[in-house]
Automatic annotation (TrEMBL):
One of its GO terms (biological process) is proteolysis. InterPro entries: Peptidase_M14. Transmembrane segments: none annotated. It comes from the Bacteria. Residues 30-305 form the Peptidase M14 domain. It comes from Stenotrophomonas daejeonensis. GO terms for molecular function: metallocarboxypeptidase activity; zinc ion binding. This is Peptidase. CDD domains: M14_REP34-like. PROSITE patterns: PEPTIDASE_M14. Belongs to the peptidase M14 family.
Length: 305
């Protein structure tokens, strides 16, 4: 007999409409996108250009999708993309992106054009949820004819600039709830068995296995190491099941998996992973780790072209 490991669905059977509706009914607003994200973006309008590139329209909420651009955009300069909150529950990705713009984006005036999307998934941000309201993972949905409106809107925003991006950094977290909630939910949704894993204690990066940039990754790791600790490999030389290819670095095929960091065709790409549940890291350190990662990525890309 197969034991249920998640309160929704039948073990071994993928969810249908009824199970997705049950899952949606469990989701509750726990914080305010308007107060914690939109208000901070609005406060930046005097220094940067802010635009709405789309809107999420779910029965359970309507959300503007907002992007921040360098003022005085110069087509002769390289374009750098910073994205956060693709998974809405990953707080430091959102707040780290906002903190970077507020405190450091002006340092790059005349050096590059910045396009920053601090919160790709505002519905998920409010509910501290990895998925969107359709029980889809936006960070597996950056594909042609994407079924996730968050992903489709970001791809449409980026499309006119594809080929001009020099760098794209996508800001994420790996949390204890990945193991206690989100991976069990994924297995249940897809009718697969849940296989427990191990959450790494510390910061790490995900490089693109189809466009490896090891020196770039290490530059980012070195910048972040000044702020917080880097995740060690487990006993098998892996982080979240993937071989560690360098200190604090694993690899995924970004485009094949429909990941956000694969949408820009930038020369330099990476996905950050902060561990906010570590006893050795505070929320401020987590935000600062994301800021350090962005700055380290920008400086390397600008120095090496």
């Amino acid at each position: 007999m197969t034991t249920a490991f998640y309160p929704i669905g039948t073990p071994g059977q993928a969810w249908g409409a009824q199970e997705r509706a049950q899952w949606l009914a469990r989701q509750r607003v726990q914080r305010s996108h308007a107060d914690e994200v939109v208000a901070k973006i609005d406060a930046l309008r005097g220094r940067f250009d802010v635009s709405q590139y789309g809107q999420l329209d779910y029965p359970s909420g309507h959300y503007p999708l907002l992007a921040i651009r360098s003022r005085g955009w110069d087509d002769a300069l390289p374009v750098m993309l910073v994205t956060g909150g693709v998974h809405g529950y990953e707080t430091s990705g959102v707040q780290g992106a906002l903190k970077f713009v507020d405190r450091h984006a002006a340092d790059y005036t005349g050096r590059c054009n910045l396009l920053v999307v601090p919160c790709v998934s505002p519905w998920g941000y409010e509910r501290i949820q990895r998925w969107n309201a359709l029980a889809l993972d936006p960070n597996r949905s950056f594909v042609i004819d994407s079924p996730a409106p968050e992903s489709a809107a970001l791809m449409a925003l980026v499309a006119p600039l594809r080929g001009r991006f020099l760098m794209h950094i996508d800001l994420h977290e790996t949390t204890d709830t990945d193991e206690s909630e989100f991976r069990p939910a994924l297995a249940a949704r897809d009718g697969k068995p849940f296989e427990p894993g191990e959450i790494p204690d510390g910061f790490y990066l995900v490089d693109d296995s189809e466009n490896r940039q090891p020196a770039f990754q290490q530059a980012v790791i070195e910048a972040v190491a000044k702020v917080t600790h880097i995740a060690p490999a487990d006993g098998d030389g892996r982080i979240i099941g993937s071989p560690v290819v360098a200190h604090g670095v694993i690899e995924y095929p970004l485009k094949a998996l429909g990941l956000c960091a694969g949408i820009s065709d930038a020369r330099y790409t990476t996905t950050t992973e902060v561990y906010p549940d570590s006893p050795k890291a505070t929320p401020e350190q987590c935000d600062d780790a994301q800021v350090a990662a962005v700055r380290g990525a920008l400086e390397y890309a600008l120095a090496h072209g």
